[in-house]
Amino acid sequence: MKKKEQNYAFEETKPDTSILYTENENSNEYVYKDRTYPGGKGWKPGSAKYGFEIGEDVKIPMDDGIILNATVAYPTDLKTGKRIEGKFPVVIEHMPYERFSVPIKINTYFTEHGYISLFVRARGTGKSQGEVQFLSPREGQDGKNIIDWAAIKLEGSDGRIALMGCSWPGVIALTDTAYVGKNSPLKAVVASASGLGNMHTQSWIVGGMPSMSMWQFKAIGTQLVGETPPVKKFFEDVSDSVLNGGDLAYEREYWSQRESLSLANKIVENNVPVLLWAGWKDIVETGTVRAYTALQNAYAGRPVGQAMIKGQKTSSRYQIIMGGWAHGKGLDMGLLLQWFDTWVKGEDTGIQNTETPMHSFELGTNRWINLKGFTEVEKATQLKFGNNLTLGENSTSGENTLKYAQPDEKGGKLIYTSKPFKDGATISGAISATIYAKSNNQNIVLIGHLYDVAPDGKEELITRGAMIGSLRELNKDYSWVDKNGVVIWPWLALKKDSLLNPNQTYKFDLALAPRQYGIKPGHSLKLEITTQTSKKLGDENGIPLTNDTEPWGLTKTQEKTVLGGEYKILFGEKAPSTLNLSLLPFKYFKEVKSGKLSVPWTENARRIQEPEGDSVIFTLPLEW
After folding, report:
1. Half-sphere exposure of residue 55, counting CA atoms within 13 Å on the CB side?
2. Dmax (CA) of the chain
């Protein structure tokens, strides 16, 4: 084992127990006060108890002979610098990435707090052998091998294992958890900015079309994961298949074996506690919410793809934090440590006693609340299309013309606005639009954006979604319906194209990403329907400037049936187009105490994050 003296993401910004979010006068560093964490037991992460010693190029054999490369960090005595004799639990990162804004190194925070840290490069990445698997059953088996090796053969291990990961590594952590089997050494998992059923429904493919994220990964994927031949081949194969309308553009064998909601059944069977962690402004929030509901449904013996029902029993072993932030933000290493101390070391921190396992930031009102299920609304509120969005009967029938064009071009946008909500309202759960439409050709593209409009005209985006008409068929096992049969969260089957008959009316179920959102009194809702994402969001080469989940063009196959499209959006008694909301009274849920914690973290830079401009959004709930 090769030793390395310094490799420490927290080295320059260690927590200070006396100062909270204060800039150091002598440097550009920030130091943080040790705060009391959720659970009501007074648990705190405390200052570092140990130093660390890092060993590189650890070899971990897989059952098929492939060798994975790893880095390990052992606790050392703070005074002598010598490695501590004795045994410790192990925190593992099963990591495909090589760099974000900085090179990715082993996270030694947990080493300083009584764990061995193990950083394992995924198959086909870094110095690890083999071909990139990207969440396949083979990668899940690798995870089982890593965990068993760390429990039995890693020097200094006491046999208790935790897994953590953010973004792609988060989904790897969930995949590994599904494949470890019963009575595994794995005792706890934190999967942040990730989920289940996400890559081909939101992140890389949205509504059946390539997303901005797909194009971003095609352009910069090897910069993030590495320049190895397996990595290059992986990104070429995936992007070529999706963008050319090949098998990976559909829900076929490749995706059915990866990040499926059915993994929730295996995770619950394996009895491993999982903390999910994401934000409503993420690029994976739908998959994170789906993973939570799937895990709770599996625990309750219900179908994993369906909505939770009111009064459903829940388990504190499966919890979720949904904040107001974007991808890879809003984390706190102290809270991860608390989750591990709770389930790995068996400490009574109190968070294992919660009866409300969903901890959600409510956008619009900027409050933290706790929930059991999601959604807790049994009947959707439907706002009918017309000259505006209206409640109740809509006797007016008509149609609006929409073209396949840029949003700022003539005919490229339709807008439907509601009357102000006099007393306000709360959106809590699934959101969809039922749209009756016809096309002059064999396909249609529908992109929806829902806005909160203040009395002064200021707008805030609530949610968005997209779909292509030839993939309108729903997966009925995964689509949510309310008690009246209204499809409130459509889940596209994505099996095969079914082209439209020109000028024939069809019903399209458009999924908008779920939200917890407070509509203030006097505010209105505005639904904007377009057919293209603005090219102003890309560079001169047509590459998106941001990693986002808006559709970015079409597959080669789709171009043949979409270009030149002109659509009629219909409304009225015979074509009841509606916006479907999981709606409750304003501030329906009780606000819980929140605040900043001790070790705020951004995964994008692999370091303690500096104070954000919007301090409200980056708080965390202190009551669970």
Report:
1. 15
2. 82
